[in-house]
Structure formats: C-alpha cells, structure tokens
Write a structure and sequence with these properties.
The protein has about 90 residues and is mainly α. It contains three helices and no strands. Helix content is about 55%, strand content about 0%. The chain starts with a helix and ends in an 18-residue tail after the last helix.
Length: about 90
C-alpha cells in the first residue's frame, strides 16, 4: 500500500492506518492493493499480532467489497467450488 501512495504522489499527509479509502482508489490501485493483501495474508495471520490481523482483515474486506462492487463480472460465484464443510 505504501508504494501505491508514493507512486500516486501522495506524500507529506498522514492517512489512517488502513490508507486511502477503497472507494477513492483508481481501478489499477484497487486491484494491486487487493492482490498485495492476499499475498501477505498468511504472513500476517501467522506472525502478526491480534491488532495487525484485525487491521489486515478490515482492510481486506473493504477492498474485496469495493472490488465486487466495481467488477461483479470478475467475481463469479461457483457453488461447485464450495466444500461440504463450508456449509456448517
């Protein structure tokens, strides 16, 4: 996320812990930030503290929700991908 801030020329301004609101991100930035969060999820889960995991989860859900809103055709639900245990 930090690189996205710098690449967009946003410097010298303090943003909240979660960065730029997902709704304000350009499409490419949204896609990149979401991919990065997915890449770092396991590391955060295994080695981050409770607060880190909470912030990561909150930001991930914010970005995923915005991504689904903008690109519903890219997030097709496939019931065949669900495992039996996910219905419990």
């Amino acid at each position: 996320m930090g690189s996205a801030l710098l690449s967009r020329g946003i410097t010298g301004k303090i943003f909240g812990v979660t960065g730029i609101p997902a709704s304000d991100l350009a499409d490419d930035d949204l896609d990149r930030d979401l991919a990065h969060l997915h890449e770092t999820r396991r590391e955060t889960f295994l080695h981050g503290g409770e607060e880190s995991l909470n912030v990561h989860t909150s930001r991930m859900l914010e970005l995923e929700t915005e991504f689904r809103r903008r690109f519903p055709e890219r997030v097709a639900s496939d019931p065949a991908r669900l495992r039996a245990t996910s219905h419990l």
